[in-house]
Each structure stands twice: as C-alpha cells, then as structure tokens.
Amino acid sequence: GSHMNDVVDLLPRTEISDKITSELVSKIGDKNWKIRKEGLDEVAGIINDAKFIQPNIGELPTALKGRLNDSNKILVQQTLNILQQLAVAMGPNIKQHVKNLGIPIITVLGDSKNNVRAAALATVNAWAEQTGMKEWLEGEDLSEELKKENPFLRQELLGWLAEKLPTLRSTPTDLILCVPHLYSCLEDRNGDVRKKAQDALPFFMMHLGYEKMAKATGKLKPTSKDQVLAMLEKAKVNMP
Predict the structure, then answer these.
(1) Model confidence, pTM
(2) Alpha helices for the chain (secondary structure H)
C-alpha cells in the first residue's frame, strides 16, 4: 500500500537523463536492427547500474515507444523487459509516464504472437503495481484501445480490466467512456472476445451501477439493445 511507497521514496535515486544522449537515442532508432539492439542493451545496462532512478529520463520514452512496434519481435520483447525494469527502478513516479509510454504497452496486447502478448501483460502489470489504476483510466486513452477491432487486444484488455476493476475503491470518472466499446465487444465476431466482455460486465456495473449502464444502451440498434439489456439483467445477479 501507500506506506510501502513512502518507504520506497526514501531510496537514493540516480539521475540518468545525462546518460540518455542523442547518440544513444539515434542508435535505438537506427535502421539496422543490430544497432537498435545495441542501443537497447546499453539502456538496460544504464538502468541496471543505477538501481533506483529519478523520473526524468530525457528522450528515452519516445525512443522506447518506437521499439514497441519494431518489425523484429525479439526487440519488441527486449523493449518490454526494459520497461518492466524501468517500472521497478523508477517506482511510483513511473505514473507520469503512463500516458506517453504505458498506453503504448497496452497496444502490444494486440500482437498476434502469444509470447509477445504475455510479455506485454507482464509489463503492464509491473507498471500498474507502481501506479495503481487511476492513471490508466483517466481520459480516453484506454477506451480508444478497446475501440480497436483487434480480437487479441480486446480479449487481453477486457481480461485485465476484469482483474483490476474490483481492486479500485473509487470509480474512475472516465470509465463510462469504455462502455460503448464493451457493448460492441459483447457482440464481437470472435467468441473469446464475447466471453471476456461478459466476464468484465459485472465489474463495470459494480462501479457504474445498473441504471447508468442501461442508459448507455440507448445508442444501440434495437436488436443489439435488447440483447445487451438481457445481459445486463444477468450481470446484475453476478455483481460483486
């Protein structure tokens, strides 16, 4: 809990921004994958040597973000490893990087490779452990991810939300923005997406309440509306 975080913040934290040189940043973005890898190795070394770091990391977020969609999957996984390492090294201050670097990790949950998705989920969890969920659910970023019609992304993200929403004491104001996309997931072509959406439904309702969620069906086509309302009735019974 927060007491632990207070203790963590007494740790001596190293300033590494001076080590994130423009030369290193251009290595990470080089067109030759071997040089990109060299740059990533260097970053891993810098964080490793510093142990605990200050939140200011210069141009590193932009550089790492670019590698999350690298054509070379080995480099994508290496970047995810670095981002896990970064969360532990930076501690609770990692929350200021959720928008620019945390959300792009969510996007990787849509990867077609199972092991890449698993690594992305482990990374998101390593970050969320330091930040809590509030930062992830602020604004439209997460709802924009759920809107993408990628069955892998939808399954993973809904599974993650079903796991995390029950741990939240207060309701994030912007959670309602996810609801229209949750409803389209309930009718997704992909059976696994539909199942995950049904699993997540009671946890959305636990925060937003039945009335608000029923009202949100108003924008649906009549046949969809009836189906979703029936699911809401069922979820009401399973609401924690």
Answers:
(1) 0.93
(2) 2-8, 22-28, 33-50, 60-67, 73-90, 103-107, 114-131, 134-137, 141-147, 151-164, 179-186, 191-208, 210-215, 222-238
